[in-house]
Amino acid sequence: MSAHAPHGGVSVVICVYTEDRWEDILAAVSSVRAQSLPALETLLVVDHHPALLERLGKEFKESEDVRVLANAGPRGLSAGRNTGIALSRGGIIAFLDDDAVAERDWLRHFAAGYDDPLVMAVGGRTEPVWASGRRPAWFPEEFDWVVGCTYKGLPRGKVRVRNVLGGNASFRRSAFDAAGGFATGIGRDGDKRPLGCEETELCIRLSRARPDAVLLIDDRAVIHHRVPAGRERFAYFRTRAYAEGLSKALVTQSVGAEKGLESERRYATRVLPAGVARGVRDFFLARPGGAGRAGAIVVGVLTTAGGYALGSLRARRTGATFSVVGIGAAEGSGGPS
Length: 337
Prior knowledge:
By secondary structure, the protein is α/β, with parallel strands linked by helices. About 40% of the residues lie in helices and about 20% in strands. Strands 1, 2, 3, 4, 5, 6, 7, 8 and 9 form a nine-stranded mixed β-sheet that branches. Helix 5 (about 175-180) packs across helix 6 (about 200-210) and helix 9 runs antiparallel to helix 10.
């Protein structure tokens, strides 16, 4: 494994949007500072929140390794990431969620992947940290993507994938030169829907721009992602599944169903039926939550499919409602640094 910082070092981008996560933000930055392979810099990109921008600017005023920036584009996670990409200096750009902490060797495992010049992206494994202290008995591991975590059914080890997952991912800078940035209008914007799939769309677009590109997940690159109490509830599970369907419809409208649903077909035909079978088995063995997990998988599939159907209908009527921009020098980056 390479111990050196590849291609000019690794910049870490953390997009933030609320003071409610103040302690989480500080913990995320601390975890980057504790890396066995030091980051070149950490960029905190604040999403149209002047008070948080000012507060973070004061907090890190004396820090040479942390830069605080304002989102230079429209409100939302995608434009925040694009701002971070444009203003970063590293040859590799890594993304960490603002409510997650990275294990000590996170960046080291990412960096090792780029020893192969064809590798354009490396993702990692995201483990949930449940607010209640443990996974709800009814919550199926196959749906951990609902809370932004690695789900049962993803391949283990260091493997090629169609797309990485945005909260724990890295890209070679030249990937954005080839494909442009994250699409705006599709990813998270506070608590509005749709809520995701922007990294899926980017990765598919990257593979089309660079057919020789290799995208990897290395599950040794681990982060721990907080799951607040509100997201342990079944109501959130359904809402998030529905939003995923809406987002997936936008992606397939843009890139076509063959690529847009490539990974989902295997997931729906193999992983989920096996999950239902395990839940039913556990029920008959009187193990806690078996029936609940089986039921949640069925409801999750139907709800996601409903969102996808409605989203597809809307997309056919109105066209895709997101846009892709090239990554240049971000304007109006303002705020303390």
